[in-house]
TrEMBL record:
<protein>
    <submittedName>
        <fullName>ROK family protein</fullName>
    </submittedName>
</protein>
<comment type="similarity">
    <text>Belongs to the ROK (NagC/XylR) family.</text>
</comment>
<dbReference type="InterPro" id="IPR043129">
    <property type="entry name" value="ATPase_NBD"/>
</dbReference>
<dbReference type="Pfam" id="PF00480">
    <property type="entry name" value="ROK"/>
</dbReference>
<dbReference type="InterPro" id="IPR000600">
    <property type="entry name" value="ROK"/>
</dbReference>
């Protein structure tokens, strides 16, 4: 039985057909989330229709940015990158159009389940996954189950307060770039790649920017460890590819 899976972000939409014997990845689509739910829905529906022309599809699995109500699976909260997204019901929309079963989950919680069952955390009792991007997301898996808390939204660590600020406003990948542009407007620090290229050239300004970021990240991660005591903490997001530059200083600072 084939399941068509979507990863819906504010920048891109990724899709893959997963069956018993094969996995087929489809071209990445630019997300129209910021332009409104109708355009976003149109692209998802078009992809479903096209895939069904060539493959049998048993059901749809959606991993999406934003808070997902664990009972209704409607979008409970979304940031400004997702226009008219709050309250939207993917299950109802896809059922009405295609008569297919649908499962919807928050993207970070989906990533945490994936790491627990198939990735770095396989065999661990628990894992906390933290993702760095436009914001900061988090999810805790214990004994194979997502820990959701009393209201279903445990793990939303981006809103945690660090030094009087929201965690994601001072320690996310986008926060790194904002701080760089503000403090060094004459530098070509327009994105994370250029900042890390400057670090490779031993530019003090770029090194100081990353040092500030890892300071704040280490405080947040230390708090997570003290509260949840997971077997493992994993950091995801595109910036996590900067392993030695980003992860090594975080590890050292968390130990302190």
């Amino acid at each position: 039985m084939n399941v068509l899976c979507f990863d819906i972000g504010g920048t891109n939409i990724k899709s893959m057909l997963i069956g018993p014997d094969e996995k087929i990845e489809f071209p990445i689509i630019e997300s129209k989330a910021k332009d409104g739910i109708e355009l976003l829905k149109k692209d998802i529906f078009a992809c479903i229709s096209k895939v069904r022309e060539n493959y049998d599809v048993y059901g749809i699995a959606i991993s999406t940015a934003g808070m997902v109500d664990p009972v209704s699976q409607k979008i409970a909260h979304a940031n400004s990158n997702f226009k008219d997204y709050i309250g939207f019901d993917w299950k109802e929309a896809i059922n009405n159009e295609f008569n297919l079963p649908v499962v919807v989950e928050n993207d970070v919680k989906s990533a945490a389940l994936g790491e627990y069952n198939f990735g770095r955390a396989k065999g661990c009792k628990s894992v906390f996954v933290l993702t760095l991007g436009t914001g900061i997301g988090g999810a805790l898996v214990v004994d194979g189950e997502i820990y959701r808390g009393s209201s279903g939204h445990a793990g939303e660590i981006g809103y945690m307060r660090i030094d009087g600020n929201e965690f994601e406003k001072i320690a996310s990948a986008s926060a790194l770039v904002r701080r760089a542009k503000s403090e060094y407007p004459n530098k070509d620090y327009t994105n994370g790649i250029k900042i890390f290229e400057a670090i490779d050239k031993n530019e003090k300004e770029a090194i100081d920017l990353l040092d500030y970021m890892t300071d704040k990240l280490s405080v947040g991660i230390a708090n997570i460890i003290l509260i949840a005591n997971p077997s493992m903490v994993l950091i995801g997001g595109g910036i996590s590819e900067q392993k030695e530059k980003l992860l090594d200083p975080i590890k050292e600072k968390v130990k302190k």
